[in-house]
Amino acid sequence: MSKRILILYAELAGYTMACLKALANADVIIHLVRYPVNKEAPFEFSFSSSVHVYDRHEFSRDALIQLANKIQPDLLLVSGWMDKDYVAIAKKWRNKIPTIIAMDNKWEGTLKQRLAIFAAPYVVLNAFNACWVPGNIQKEFALRLGFKSENLKTGFYTADTDYFSAIYNESRERPIPHRFVYSGRYYDFKGVSELWEAFAAWKKEQLNDWKLICMGTGDIPGTVHPDIEHLGFVQPHQLRPILMEGGVFILPSKIEPWAVVVQEYAAAGYPLLLSTNVGASEAFLLENKNGFSFEASNVSAIKKTFEKVSRLSKHELSEMRKVSHELGIANSPQNWAAMLLSFMQ
Predict the structure, then answer these.
(1) CA separation (Å) from 243 to 8, 144, 171, 321?
(2) 306: Cβ–Cβ under 8 A, 6 or more apart, which residues?
(3) What is the per-residue DSSP string for 230-259?
(4) DSSP bridge pairs for 250
(5) What confidence tens digit (pLDDT) does each residue in 284-335 have?
(6) Exposed, middle or buried: residue 144 (CB in 10 Å: 0-12, 13-18, 19+)?
(7) What are the φ and ψ backbone dihedral angles of 157, each rounded to 5 degrees?
(8) Torsion from C-alpha of 341, 23, 249, 294, nearest 10 degrees
(9) Are the C-beta atoms of residues 78 and 87 closer than 8 Å to each other?
(10) Mind giving me the DSSP string for 111-151?
(11) What integer pLDDT is reported at residue 238 of this predicted model?
(12) Contact 229, 334 (CB under 8 A)
C-alpha cells in the first residue's frame, strides 16, 4: 500500500516541484497544503495525479485537523514554525508518526534565537520529533534548539539537477562569455543596489566588454545602464535559452540563509561569485577553485571581484565550470525523496 505523506508548506518554488515529482515516483501519495504564489516570484505549477493540492487560505485550524484525520498520513512534513495552525497539527500527530520540521534558519546567536532556545520545548520539540535542514550552519541551530543528532538530517534544499545538468552538458565545450548573471528578487536584502553600483563604477574605471544580466522583480527599480540588462521574472521552463549562453553567476545577498539558486547555477556549470552571507556557499563554493567570495554590502569588494574574474583566462574559467558542476550535482531531488522517506525508518 502506498505511503501517505502530508506536507504543510509555505510558498512553493520551481525546485520544490522536482522534489515532489521524485517523491511521487517513489510510490507515495502526497497531500500538499500550500500558500499562494508570491507576486514577486509568480511560478506556474502543474501537479501529477499523485499530488493532491490544497490552498492554505481555504483552511481554518479545525479544517486542517479534519483534513489530516481524513488522510491518516504516515509522515508529516512542515515548513517552519511560523504558521501556528501547522504546528498545532504536528502536535496532534507527534506521538503517532514522524513529524518533521524543515527550517533554514542559521545560527547567529541573536537575542531572538537565544529566546527561541528557551521556548523550544514548548513550541517546537513538543510538536516535532525530527528536523530537516539545508546544511551545517542550520544544523547547529537545530541542535541548540534541542533536536538530537540522530533525528536531524541535512539536504532539505536541492535544485532540479537533471534540468541544469542538461544545460551544462550541452554548453560545456563553449567558451564562457563575458557575462555576469544575477537571478533573484529586487530587494535591499539581496544587495542588488550595491551590485549595480559596483558594476557601473567598474565599467567606468575599466574599459571591457563584460555585461550584467539580471532576472527578477521587486520593489527596487533596476539601474539603467547600457551594459546591464533586466529580464524580469523568468519561469523555470524559460531559463534554458538564457542559461545556455553561459556566464558567471553572482549573488551579493546581505541576508541569505541558503539560496537554492546557487546550486542551480553550479549544476549548470557557472563559476560562482557569492557574498559571505550566502549560506549555500558551504556546499557549492570552493574559494579560488570554482569562484570567489566577497563581503556583503561592500561595493569596493564587489568591484575587485569583477576585476579578479575579468583577469582569468578561458582555461581557468573552464576549469571553474567543471568544479561547479561536480559540486552542483551532489544533491538531487531523488536524494531528497529518499531522505524524506528515511525518516520513517
Answers:
(1) 32, 40, 9, 13
(2) 180, 198, 199, 202, 210
(3) E-----GGG-HHHHHT--EEEE--SSBS--
(4) 273
(5) 999 999 999 999 999 999 999 999 999 999 999 999 999 999 999 999 999 9
(6) middle
(7) -95, 135
(8) -20
(9) yes
(10) HHHHHHHHHHHHHTTTT-SEEE-SSHHHHHHHHHHT--GGG
(11) 87
(12) no
Element (H, E) at 181: strand 179-183
CB 143 within 8 A of CB 152: yes
**Number of other CB atoms surrounding residue 63 within 10 Å:** 12
pTM as predicted: 0.93
Percent of the chain with pLDDT over 90: 90
Residue 43 has pLDDT above 80, yes or no: no
The answer to whether the Cα torsion of 13, 17, 18, 20 is positive or negative is positive
| Grid coordinates belonging to 77 | 512534513
Average pLDDT over residues 212-236: 94
Q: For the residues 135-164, what does the mean pLDDT come to?
A: 96
Residue with cell 576549469: 319
What's the average model confidence in pLDDT over 134-159?
96
For residues 24 and 30, the answer to whether their CB atoms sit within 8 Å is: yes
Total residues found in the chain within this entry: 345
Helix, strand or coil, per DSSP, at residue 227: coil
- Of 162, 142, 166, 167, nearest in space to 154 by CA: 142
Report the C-alpha dihedral over residues 329, 335, 340, 344, rounded to 10 degrees: -150
Q: How far lies 277's CA from each of 116, 157, 189, in Å?
A: 22, 17, 11
- Arithmetic mean of pLDDT over the chain: 94
Distance in angstroms (rounded) separating the CA atoms of residues 317 and 108: 34
The reported pLDDT for the residue numbered 2 is 85
CA distance 89 to 84: 9
On the 0-12 / 13-18 / 19+ scale of CB atoms within 10 A, 308 is middle
In the chain, the domains with their CATH numbers are: 3-159+331-342 (3.40.50.2000), 161-328 (3.40.50.2000)
Closest to 186 in 3D by CA, of 40, 336, 34: 40
